[in-house]
Amino acid sequence: MKKDEIEKLITLSSDLRWKIGDEFHDSLAEGIYADASEISNASVSRANEKKKFRLDSKIDSIVTSKTWGFPIMFLILALILWITIVGANYPSAMLSNLLLDNVHPFLKEVAANIGMPWWLDGFLIDGVYLAVAWVVAVMLPPMAIFFPLFTLLEDFGYLPRVAFNMDYLFKKSGAHGKQALTMSMGFGCNAAGVVATRIIDSPRERLIAIITNNFSLCNGRWPTQILIATIFIGAVVPSSFSAVASMSAVIGIAILGIFFMFLTSWALTKTVLKGEVSTFNLELPPYRPPRVLKTIYTSLIDRTLIVLWRAIVFAAPAGAVIWLISNIYIGNESIAAWTINFLDGFGFLLGLNGVILLAYIVAIPANEIVIPTILMLTVLVTGVTGGEGAGVMFELDSVNATGDLLRAGGWTLLTAVNLMLFSLLHNPCSTTIYTIYKETNSLKWTTVATILPIIMGFIVTFLVAQIWRLF
Amino acid sequence: MNYNPVNALLIFFGLVLIGYLLFRPKSGWFWIIKNNLKSNEKIIIEDVLKQLYHNENSGKEMNLHDLSNSLKFSDGTIVDVVKKMAIIDLITFNGDIIQLTSSGRDYALRIVRVHRLWEKYLAEKTGFDKTEWHDRAEKMEHKLSHEETDRLASHLGNPKYDPHGDPIPTKLGKVASLEGEFLSSLKVGTIGRIIHIEDEPDVIYKQILAEKIHIGSQIRVIENNKERVVFYAEGQEFILAPIVAANITIALLEKEESLEENMARLSSLKDNEEAEIIGISKESRGDGRRRLLDLGFVKGAKISIDLKSPLGNPIAYLIKGTSIALRKDQASKILIKKGVKHGK
């Protein structure tokens, strides 16, 4: 074709484009729908669908009603969390009995018999193995209970109704109603919660849900909260109320997390995220009987095992680091002791201490090992008798003994309260950070999601500590 | 240093205050310094050109005094810049009236083109709020090069109008005409369509937005006097002050080509009512609009309310056999015709 002909063609096309105007896409969609309905009218015969429809709308009129909508929702969520926390205790105890109390000594014995040098034995068995075993024992059972339950609800079709009910509240902070679901999923595991944000198809709201998922107290943090609340909060009230007091403290922290989630969502929409595209729509699919076996299978494979695998991959090096810093000496102090001394001043400002800060640094891979690490480090720096040796994480059988050890480490009620706050407001675990990066594909948003909560944690614990000390 | 919680708190709040003063939106010191560093001659020249262009288009003549009144730069700077612009043949003096030369006019058109294209871009491809489009475009118009502008235009499909209804000049400087009359000048009973909403001054634009008046809406004037202009559009009555109404341009329609009088917004649909969709308002843009079309919110589709959420918003609508929840502000941008017979 000659050059001027091509140019003529281009001018013609841009002229035509002007003439078609903005309605172009509308007409196209209309045309497609018109054709589609013609085809379906001609070829599809509808059976009696009315009956099923009536049942659907009956369920809908209850679960989205003004009186029952919210109570049903909270009841179901509370029930799932309760089953998860209580139900996970037994398998967790069994697993930790097996992996920590039996396999670990056995491995040590084998290592001693084959004459493995002490440092290799410590590095591999006390460091790497123990961290992995711990994560498996604490993480696997709750996830194996929580995710199938959640997936069953999803399969049944109830979850979109929750999003529908909650949307107005989330809209006020610029978020999507479906964030209620990813937030609840975050109570199980933040990494899984971040993956679950795929159900939000609006880019801006999805980013909000990803960044704020960390404010849902995850399975790895519930045990920490419960333990610390039992030891310190339960102790300030008469013993008959201690269970109630500590339980409400933990629930209070979880609710505070939801508050921070709304606050951050709102702040993000008003600032860094306001340029992102926002579209809303929510389909309410018909209910259907859940396929129990398939659900259990897929939720175990898709959610539990993948998340567990990632956690193990990250926990292994963390175990190694924990062992190394406690066993490598500079001068006559271990690296851990040096760091703790260094961090103590800053820790004091936050109403925490160096041990806690160091534990949170080395336990970035998994929140599950925070408490064992704190106990080990406390023994290391205070020189109290007990524990399993430098770099070997442990937990005590009795809550009282744990309390005594922590008090010997200089803990007060303020330390406990601030630890609970800091456990809620700190960077996501490395599994979650990695997942955020995979989902957003952006270094910028991963950094925001990582740094933002820890800054909030610093500010909140700092303010609490100062105000506490004023009185 | 002695530790004391009061000192610690004081230092903390001191830092927060400094951070706030430096970085608060718009008037933070950091932004002010940053803007001053960038505020160079090119920007001033382009702002002067744009000002002259708009005034010449509306038939107003400007002298140096008017110019410095309408721009936020100091008088000295403007005098310097105007001198220079006369030398490089962008403007000429006719007495004390300043006029654009043809090259000045071309340059001004290019700036206007970038401004309107960028507003279109913000409307279609980003989530920025309407109220921010103008200010952001004001900054961007000084930044984009020729090639970037052309690429932007073709990326947007060479649009004819910006989201306010202003024509976008083409690459060759062609400007589509905007033929309409100001709402404030229409007689009672006139039927027309909103084709343009002026986004300056800000105060009036925000009032129009607050009324939820949508571009592209069909209107009928009910009352027009010195106190107020009342018109009927999309099933609702709107009342405006004449000065506000003057910022809305209407294209007149013949009575015959006017569409249904019982057109309404989907947000006004009640329980147990059934309606037919007429279309989606021009106010619904970009991905959001495409999404609605894909879900089946197209002309002729039957629609009714399926469910209301406990807090009243969103509402799930039954369309093409599925239940889809929309928020109120979205539903207000879908136009329906009520009173369709109950389908089976």
From TrEMBL, chain B:
For whether the record's keyword set contains Transferase, the answer is no
Limits of the Ferrous iron transporter FeoA-like domain: 181-252, 264-338
Membrane-traversing stretches: 6-23
Pfam families given for it?
Answer: Fe_dep_repr_C (PF02742), FeoA (PF04023)
- Record-linked InterPro entries: DtxR_MntR_Metal-Reg, Fe-transptr_FeoA-like, Fe_dep_repressor, Fe_dep_repressor_sf, FeoA_core_dom, Iron_dep_repressor, Transcriptional_repressor_C, WH-like_DNA-bd_sf
The terms under GO molecular function for this entry are: DNA binding; DNA-binding transcription factor activity; protein dimerization activity; transition metal ion binding
Q: Which UniProt keywords apply?
A: DNA-binding, Iron, Membrane, Transmembrane, Transmembrane helix
Cite the Gene3D superfamilies for this sequence. Answer: 2.30.30.90, Winged helix-like DNA-binding domain superfamily/Winged helix DNA-binding domain
Q: What is this protein called?
A: DNA-binding protein
